[in-house]
């Protein structure tokens, strides 16, 4: 007898509890929005906002308040301090870049300021990074564009893979790319362009009845918005490491969604007489073992990075920890539940039967 982590006859009513999941999701999104727009907002790292970051290590421990007070000088405008790692010896310093100052001049000014403030406590600069405002704006635009195009290509793939509507997906992608290009000529910022394009994508998917693609996109937006909101509440800076984690989460969440979608498509053909809610529950239960094992091993690896990886990778690991939880839940309660809201089993059975008309390679012995 083979080993089974979850019994094959498991029949948990996930869809029946979807309203509880909706309530939790709405609460988390509202808390995140309140933090981003009425609270401290998203803290953009120097990768996007520009400025200088320096990692320093003192010979002896230093108090936070004493360090910040002593470094509040004109040579280091807008200084902020953050403890780095364990103990009171390592700190990250962030400040605005002075005009016409290069990395060598900034290093010298920082060393002189630290030596003057702490003459009996030698400080060593272990890392110094300088990002100009133009570079930061360029990185911001590229990061937003990467998020948008990843979601758009996902919509095209899902439309063709599960609904056999590659042409509709391609037309949608071409129209949105052209619309985004034309809107860019108006001078709108990349952030507004991405929001506008995402809204158009959702509307197009709805009217073309690309339900699988619509469910996947809404699930991804759900994951990213909740993760960003919680990062804002915790005061985590959004830098390239966090952006890399968000893009990783987009792929990870989509992977779990596709597994559920694929099993749902098989069940639509095998048992078309069942209701849509029963079919979704059956599909989720049949893939439950795979979901728990995959998410569990990912959480263990990410938790190891969070605890043992050090300060440099701390924010990346934290973003992944939040995203794995949120992404696993959204595959069940968001991406799959949207299919239930947009159509009954008869609607999807007809789509599945249309897709089955395509002959698979080797079906009749000829490849």
Give short descriptive properties of this protein.
367 residues, alpha+beta, Multidrug efflux transporter AcrB transmembrane fold, Alpha-Beta Plaits, four-stranded antiparallel sheet, two-stranded parallel ribbon, elongated
What do you see in this structure?
The chain is elongated, with a radius of gyration of 25 Å. Helix 6 (166-184) packs antiparallel against helix 7. It folds into two domains: 13-38 and 133-350, Multidrug efflux transporter AcrB transmembrane domain (Multidrug efflux transporter AcrB transmembrane fold, Up-down Bundle); 50-130, Multidrug efflux transporter AcrB pore domain (Alpha-Beta Plaits). The longest helix has 31 residues, at 133-163. The protein has 367 residues and is α+β, with helices and mostly antiparallel strands. The chain has 13 helices and six strands. It has a four-stranded antiparallel sheet with strand order 3-4-2-5. A two-stranded parallel ribbon has the order 1-6.
């Amino acid at each position: 007898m083979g080993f089974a982590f979850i019994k094959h006859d498991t029949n948990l009513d996930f869809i029946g509890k979807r309203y509880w999941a909706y309530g939790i999701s709405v609460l988390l999104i509202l808390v995140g929005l309140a933090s981003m727009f009425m609270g401290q907002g998203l803290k953009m790292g120097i990768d996007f906002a520009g400025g200088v970051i320096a990692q320093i290590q003192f010979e002896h421990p230093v108090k936070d308040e004493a360090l910040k007070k002593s470094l509040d000088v004109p040579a280091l405008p807008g200084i902020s301090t953050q403890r780095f790692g364990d103990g009171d010896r390592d700190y990250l310093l962030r400040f605005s870049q002075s005009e016409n100052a290069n990395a060598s001049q900034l290093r010298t000014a920082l060393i002189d300021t630290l030596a003057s403030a702490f003459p009996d406590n030698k400080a060593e600069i272990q890392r110094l990074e300088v990002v100009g405002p133009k570079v930061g704006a360029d990185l911001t635009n590229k990061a937003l564009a990467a998020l948008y195009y990843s979601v758009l290509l996902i919509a095209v793939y899902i439309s063709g893979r599960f609904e056999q509507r590659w042409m509709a997906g391609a037309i949608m992608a071409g129209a949105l790319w052209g619309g985004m290009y034309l809107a860019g000529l108006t001078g709108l910022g990349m952030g507004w362009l991405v929001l506008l394009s995402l809204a158009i994508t959702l509307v197009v998917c709805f009217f073309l009845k690309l339900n699988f693609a619509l469910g996947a996109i809404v699930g991804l937006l759900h994951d990213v918005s909740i993760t960003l909101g919680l990062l804002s509440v915790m005061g985590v800076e959004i830098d390239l490491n966090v952006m890399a984690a968000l893009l990783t989460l987009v792929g990870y969440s989509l992977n779990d969604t596709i597994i559920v979608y694929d099993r749902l498509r098989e069940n639509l053909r095998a048992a078309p007489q069942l209701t849509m809610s029963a079919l979704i529950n059956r599909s989720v239960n049949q893939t439950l073992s795979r979901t728990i094992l995959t998410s569990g091993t990912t959480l263990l690896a990410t938790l190891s990075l969070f605890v043992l990886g050090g300060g440099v990778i701390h924010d990346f690991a934290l973003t992944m920890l939040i995203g794995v939880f949120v992404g696993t839940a959204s595959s069940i309660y968001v991406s799959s539940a949207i299919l239930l809201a947009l159509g009954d089993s008869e609607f999807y059975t007809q789509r599945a039967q249309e897709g089955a008309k395509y002959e698979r390679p080797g079906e009749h012995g000829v490849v």
